[in-house]
Amino acid sequence: MKIGIIGSGHIGGTLTRRLSALGHDVTVTNSRGPASLGDLARETGATAGTLEQATEQAEIVVVAIPLRAVPDLPAGRFEGRIVVDADNYYPQRDGEIAELLDRSLSSSRWTAEHLKGARVVKAFNNIQAQHLMDNGRPAGASDRIGLPVAGDDADAKRVVMELVDALGFDPVDAGTLDESWRQQPDTPVYGTDRDADGVRQGLADARP
Predict the structure, then answer these.
(1) Beta-bridge mates of residue 2
(2) What is the pLDDT of residue 34?
(3) HSE value, Cβ hemisphere, 13 Å, CA-based, for 201
(4) How many helices and strands, by DSSP H and E, does the chain display?
(5) Do 178 and 109 touch, CB atoms closer than 8 A?
(6) Closest of 89, 77, 41 to residue 185, by C-alpha
């Protein structure tokens, strides 16, 4: 697939490496511009581009940036596209966002409201980058990690779940975007590398 990745930090850089290795056509961008991505591009074979180039004709766009930067994204570039929201809300970094502080809104719903028309799916936000890089396993392996995937668009969620599986993790349907708070920081599945059954249990055990 043609995949754009917005953000080249821990998760964005890791997905650039992993998805390029699987043979996808990856274009990665960041706020510092393509010139800052030369080393990553040479290492992975991905294209270092602008945001416009990363979203142009992309079948999937991964957003892996500080949450506070989401409102600065040009929403029109994402309309109709599958957008994988790999972000987390950290108040100490992102500042106070009232509806996220009191958890009346999931961070993915907040993101979807800024990127109106995008088919937003929450994934890759609860796993450490190094584990995403190193701990993929074949289907059926006893130590395969489960990853929650949440979204409102059933087809978009299916595509992302297939991608999670291809990366070596068991995709677990985590419900809608409004339910995606169950995989946010300070929940049982956040950063805990559970298997698929453990993820399902952790999602059920989460409390607001």
Answers:
(1) 25
(2) 97
(3) 7
(4) 9, 8
(5) yes
(6) 89
Q: pTM to 2 decimals? A: 0.97
The token duo for 11 is 């998760």
Q: Is 117 left (phi over 0), alpha (psi -120 to 50) or beta?
A: left
Q: How far apart are alpha carbons 19 and 157 in whole angstroms?
A: 17
In tens, the pLDDT along 13-55 reads: 999 999 999 999 999 999 999 999 999 999 999 999 999 999 9
Instruction: Yes or no: say if 185 and 161 are a contact pair by the CB < 8 Å rule.
Output: no
CA distance 45 to 176: 34
Arithmetic mean of pLDDT over the chain? 97
Q: Which amino acid belongs to residue 60?
A: I
Residue 208 confidence (pLDDT): 85
3-class DSSP string for 8-19: CCHHHHHHHHHH
- Measured distance CA(153)–CA(112) in Å, rounded: 12
Work out the end-to-end distance of the chain between its first and last CA atoms, rounded to an integer number of angstroms. Answer: 36
Are 103 and 208 in contact, with CB atoms under 8 Å apart? yes
Nearest CA to 90 out of 170, 191, 19, 205 is that of 191
